[in-house]
Amino acid sequence: MNTEIKPEQSPELLKALHILTRDGKLNQDSRRKLKQIYHLYHFIEPLLQELVDAGGEFSLADHGAGKSYLGFILYDLFFKSREVGSGGGNMLGMLYGIERRAELVTQAQVLARQLAFARMAFLNLSVEASMSSPDLPGKVHMVTALHACDTATDDAIRFALHKEAQFIVLVPCCQAEVASVMRQNKSASLAKTPLAEIWRHPIHTREFGSQLTNVLRCLLLEAHGYTLTVTELVGWEHSMKNELIIARRGQVPRGNARQRAEQILQELNLPELLPRFVY
After folding, report:
1. Chain CA centroid to CA 265, Å
2. How far apart are CA 170 and CA 151, in angstroms?
3. Residue 241 — very low, low, confident or very high, per pLDDT cuts 50/70/90?
């Protein structure tokens, strides 16, 4: 048995996801991918258990699900062992994969049927449609987004806030929008503030833009009453897309979070980004 695979994990699922080869081997790329998902599961599992322990129905939405690696592995490791009649009690949680690309949704639907993963649903929806779709519950208890590219992480945050999610778990991917605006405004910014020297060179524009994006996302979540844990997912040798943001809904918003976000965007000459990060 491959010791890199959890003993409760279905090898047949990993083969269907093309993480394992037909003869049950892991290549280097798949090994990195599986390591990241297992590390993320380490953070997600106790949050799911909190929802189970609270009793009643609950739901998880994986927004920008792509090929749904995360959703299928979560279901296999957590939901499947707690199905009604499996010895796990009367646990009726539901896992939704939301994705804009219709062909990926169709592939995931076929695989879920083949595996008899009855409490998985895959929906071909935009962020706007997902917030009002009758195919989703009014409240979603947990929202995840793993390597959702560029503004797709922001779409997941917007969806989670609208659905009053108890937990939000994000691993952002490439963040090009902020860097693009910084690049467009660079001449005016250099004339306005010496802070623009931080992103004068193209490589610094990209790196600082990525850092700033996640800082603004954190302030947005805090402004809506979430407490945050921000850490790395795995060692940098496994992925450069490595920041993990875990948000837990609380009762009281951070008092100055909205004001700080506004001040940062004004100081850095990025006012056109206010609608993205301040609402």
Report:
1. 24
2. 12
3. low
Residue 174, burial from CB neighbour count under 10 angstroms (0-12, 13-18, 19+):
middle
Burial 47-60 (b: 16+ CB within 10 A, else e): bbeebbeeeeebbb
Task: Give helix 202-223 / helix 257-267 axis angle, nearest 10°.
Answer: 160
For the packed helices 152-162 and 202-223, what is the interaxial angle rounded to 10 degrees? 0
- Tokens for 69, please give them: 């690696």
CA nearest 93: which of 107, 110, 106, 74? 74
CA 156 to chain centre: 7
**What phi and psi, each to the nearest 5 degrees, are found at residue 190?**
-65, -35
Is residue 133 within 8 A of residue 123, CB to CB? The reply is: yes
Q: Which residue has the higher pLDDT, 252 or 235?
A: 252
**Residue whose structure tokens are 């524009």:** 205
pTM over 0.90, yes/no:
yes
Report pLDDT digits (tens) over 167-181.
999 999 878 899 999
